[in-house]
Amino acid sequence: MSKAKRAGLRENGDGGMTGVDDTALASAIGNGEDLAPFIRAAFEVGKPETLIHQLKSFVKKKEVEIEDLCKLHYSEFIRAVDELRYVLVDADELKSGLAEENRQLQEIGDTLLRMLDALIQSHGTKKNIMQAIESLKMCTAVVDLCMRVNENVMNDSYYPALKALDIMERDFLPVLHARALRQLLERQIPVCRAHIERKVNKEFNDWLVHIRSASREIGQLSIGQASSARQREEELRGRQRQAEEQSRSGSKELVYMLEMEDLDEDDSQLKFDLTPVYRAYHINTCLGMQDQFREHYFKNRQLQLNSDLQISTTQSFLESHQSYFAQLAGFFIVEDRVLRSAGGLMSSARTEQLWESAISKVTVVMEDQFSRMQDANHLLLVKDYVSLLGATLRRHGYQVGPLLEVLDTMRDKYHELLLADCRYRINDVLANDKSERMMMKKEYEYNMNVLAFHLQSVDVMPAFPYIAPFSATVPDCCRIVRSFIEDSVSFLAYGGHIDYYDLVKRYLDKLLVTVLNEALLRLVRSPTLGVSHAMQIAANMTVLETACDYFAQHAAKLCGIPTRLVEGPHGALSAQSVLRNSQAVAHDTMIKLVKSKVDEVMNSTLNINWSPDEPPTIANDYLNDVYIYLQTIAETSQEILPPTAFYKVISGVLEHISRRIMETFLSEDVKRFNIYAVMGIEADLMLLEGFADDKYRTSVQDRVPGVQPLKSFLAEARQTVNLFMATQPDLYLNPVIRERNYGALDPKNIIIIGEKFKDLPEKLFGRGGKVAPKKKLIDALIKRLKNEA
Fold first, then answer.
1. Could you tell me which residues belong to the region Disordered (predicted)?
2. How far apart are CA 781 and CA 737, in angstroms?
């Protein structure tokens, strides 16, 4: 229908069609257009009469126009009337045809309308069926998802279950037409999520309980790995030192081998399950509760840590320290794994916060427990485990400096306890010493007591049984010192000091000086000390001084310092000079004791007949005892003392004997003496000089270069006897002769002794032609000496 035609249709107030616009109809007729739309519209509204009436009105109007026109055009009008009559006839025929067409159209339209209604109903049914099918498909998919959720929850596959819940909530709920199912899902989805959250959190809480009990085992295993790594490192250093020693010794076949297996420790044996943590964190992240779970995890682990740091009240710290530190190590090993693999559950800052909290409490506990310990072995035991703890946690990236600082503060206390223990053991050894030279019957005894401490004087294995110059005290003390070195190195090693040899050396010097040397000096200064005991102590001191080189080398070896760096004077222990000085004290004490014994024997010189009537044929009786005693002392000291000490002892005794002879001459108890008495002293001196020459030749001459002969220490007595036996004693007044032959004499002593000299009775002069009177010569010499004075 054209726009004009559509505009010609008029509507009433009820929205129904009431007729056709006359103008439009007239325009359509005038234009010769098809009137079917007008007719169809009239029939559609059920009022064809109105159209007919309009057509009639149009006809009448046209008739009027025709009449008017006819008046103007009569002839034409007549023709038009005729034509109009024909039109009327045609109109009647058209009316009849239209009525018939309308009837037929109505019949056909009713059928079509019924069919259209059926079609529309069928389309509605089809649409409903399709919607029902789609709804059923959606419900089926939702039910499948629900079944899958239930199955995943039953199989503890919480993430797929949550993803299925998210799909249901995002993709199905907004378009789900099944109201009951939609309401069910709206109620059950939060319930299911809450159920998953509870199950995951329960698994996590169970893991918290499990991991706390497993942390101790994890820590023990990791600390054991650190101990094994340390042992391998020490073995490697030992092989390296051995190779260096072989290189220095000039060995041509050197084999260097570095075993790489197991050098890099990994965590392959540290197997512990973090799946509940990963799952709980992932599920809570999916639920949008990751921040709450992080806080929950941190607070619970913090509570566990605080509980782990509590000291056991049922056990001593010595018994519980390993489990205590193993628990701590296991805790932070787990935390390190969580930090590295849990995808942001723990931050570095929070892990560091836990570590700083733990380290502050642990250091307080260690300081308190160390301050209570009074046994060096206990302290060393705890220290070793703490150092392994530090090595273990350092491998996992933790700063263990505060732990090592606590160990460093305990260094002096540990060594004081160690010194106290060594002092007790050394005093016990010295108290039980029999002061007898040690006899070794088997080679293993020699290896254990001599070679082990480098005490051998020659590199050749001696014949057995072998009698050492020292007593059993020496190897016993060496073992104590060696154990001290090893314990000291054990404490200082793997601590805060990289180069700790100087510390070990300092404490070793302290042991040797303040403990061993002082104990030996107390024995030397004991009022009940005998000569043999003093001599054995002096010999032991000499050997212990030699052993200081071994002690320094052993300490350097344990500290990983090449022995070449400690060889020579610059690497010697200061205790060597102290022991050397103490040897001098022991030698002086021994000489003092020997002199005392000699004094006891020589007190009988006052019983000598100072005015005999016959010249002596042998030495005086007292000297036989002195000579036997000197031989005994010389034999013993020659075997156990070094040549310099032997020389010092024998020379000191001889000098003392010479001085005692002079004191006897000067004594007021000797009022007078004659030439025969001088001859007796001369015989005594000859015996002593023979002894001195023998010992000098066999024990001193080739071993102590640059020293005076031993008999020179009898010079004062010898020169006095020579002076009074000289045929011309006045030659003493000659400075050259005096310096050469009488340099040891004091003129004052010559005056005193000379005044006691007397001639033999006249009846004895000339007996045998051997003795001539010389009183006058002596008196003249004395007079000249007095004048010079």
1. 222-250
2. 14
Distance CA(180)–CA(202), nearest Å, equals 33
Provide the token pair at 53: 């009436």
- Cβ-Cβ contacts under 8 Å for 376 (sequence gap 6 or more): 414, 417, 418, 420, 421, 487
Q: What pTM was computed for the model?
A: 0.70
Q: What is the CA radius of gyration of the chain?
A: 66
pLDDT of residue 568: 64
- pLDDT at residue 569 in the model: 62
Choose among 463, 510, 459, 461: nearest CA to 484. Answer: 510
Instruction: Tell me which of 7 and 529 has the higher pLDDT.
Output: 529
Task: For residue 189, count other CB atoms closer than 10 A to its CB.
Answer: 18
pLDDT digits (tens, 9 = 90+) for 537-589: 888 988 998 898 889 888 888 887 877 777 766 667 888 889 889 988 988 88
As a whole number of angstroms, the distance between CA 488 and CA 502 comes to: 12
Give the DSSP H/E element, type plus range, for residue 437.
strand 437-440
User: Alpha-carbon distance 641 to 537, whole Å?
Assistant: 10
Sole residue written with tokens 């990289």? 498
Q: Where are the alpha helices (DSSP H) in 458-500?
A: 473-492
- Which helix (H) or strand (E) is 279 found in, with range? helix 275-286
Domain ranges of the chain: 216-243+270-398, 412-576, 608-788
Per-residue pLDDT tens for 195-246?
A: 888 888 888 899 999 988 888 899 989 888 888 888 887 778 767 766 766 6
**Phi (first) and psi of residue 736, to 5 degrees:** -65, -45
Tokens found for residue 286? 């999916």
Cα 478 to Cα 539: distance, rounded to the nearest angstrom: 15
**Could you tell me which residue, 293 or 185, shows the higher pLDDT?**
293
* Amino acid in position 204: F
Long-range contacts of 322-328 (CB under 8 A, 24+ apart): 322/220, 322/385, 323/216, 325/219, 325/223, 325/385, 325/386, 325/389, 326/215, 326/216, 326/217, 326/219, 326/220, 326/223, 327/215, 327/216, 327/219, 328/219, 328/358, 328/362, 328/389
> What's the pLDDT at 534?
87
Is residue 176 within a helix (H) or strand (E), and if so which, with residue range?
Answer: none
pLDDT in tens, 335-384: 999 988 888 888 889 999 999 999 999 999 988 888 888 888 888 888 88
- What pLDDT is recorded for position 513? 93
Alpha-carbon distances, residue 214 vs 99, 323, 339, 393 (angstroms): 105, 12, 18, 17
How big is the chain, counted in residues?
789
Report the first-to-last Cα separation within the chain, whole angstroms: 179
The domain over range 412-576 is classified in CATH as 1.20.1440.20: no
Which residues, in sequence order, are CB contacts of 239 under 8 Å at separation 6+? 257
Q: Which of 763, 773, 777, 775 is nearest to 613 (CA)?
A: 763
For 490-515, give one letter per residue: b (16+ CB within 10 A) or e.
ebbbbbbbeebbebbbebbbbbbbeb
% of residues, the chain, pLDDT over 70: 89
